[in-house]
Amino acid sequence: MRIATWNVNSIRSRIDRVMGWLERNDIDVLALQETKCREDQFPGLELSAMGYDYALFGLNQWNGVALISRVGLDDIATSFADDQPHYGEPAALEARSIGATCDGVRVWSFYVPNGRAVDHPHYFYKLAWLERLRQAAGDWLADNPQARIALTGDWNVAPRDEDVWDMTRFEGHTHVSPRERAAFQAVLDAGYTDVVRPHTPGPGVYTYWDYKQLSFPKKKGLRIDFILASPALADRVHSAWIDREERKGKGASDHAPVVVEMS
């Protein structure tokens, strides 16, 4: 089975690229982030014609997550906890998580809040969101240590200095702050493993490059997209890669797809 995650930065703008990439790479399950559309705007007919089922959580032109699968989508959930943190005035659930069981694997697509600035309310929302996810993810393994779970998505955290093209440019900013890194590590400590990094070691290995200032050709990137696996799933992963080539060309997303292959 091949499971991938990709922040597509608007599925309607990039459906042709997504379809071509799925076909070329023989993907079984694709987790999407920043779909940026309502459910009635999602280009599902095109995916159905390729033999894929899909599930989407999208409320408007912001955020949005989806799962695309050719191996089933069962027990779909659009929040990882009943009390998943809300944001806004008034506070509301944002379209940032969706999960489903795909051929025995519980796959989650997460679009973790950005944080904006370390003194912004959105930053504290981000920390609360990650902490509640840690609790939920830990509970899933406590309930069933043999559960096969994939926590995928755009985490908006660069866990290590080597995951940032120039740490001096990010000092005092989000994505690299000690509290964000500790929150990400806490999810790992709940029993999960980054199953991509061993196959794609850094430094200089990234998943995101800003559209501005020629960041991609200048290799000014961040590693913020991850697939974390439960022990029972991690044991089955035998390869993984970041498809940097998909960041190239006209109409590319600013993120690259991340893929794991397992037995």
Would you give an account of this structure?
This protein has 263 residues and is of the alpha+beta class. It has one domain: 4-Layer Sandwich (Deoxyribonuclease I, Chain A), CATH 3.60.10. 23% of the residues lie in helices and 25% in strands. It contains five helices and 14 strands. It has helices spanning 11-25, 44-49, 121-143, 178-189, 231-234; strands at residues 2-7, 29-33, 53-57, 65-69, 74-77, 97-102, 105-111, 149-154, 193-194, 208-209, 221-222, 225-229, 237-242, 258-262. The chain has a six-stranded mixed beta sheet with strand order 3-4-2-1-14-13. A hairpin with a 7-residue loop joins strand 3 and strand 4. The termini are close together. The mean pLDDT is 97.
Write a compact overview of the structure shown.
This protein is of the alpha+beta class. It has one domain: 4-Layer Sandwich (Deoxyribonuclease I, Chain A), CATH 3.60.10.10. It is built from 5 helices and 14 strands.
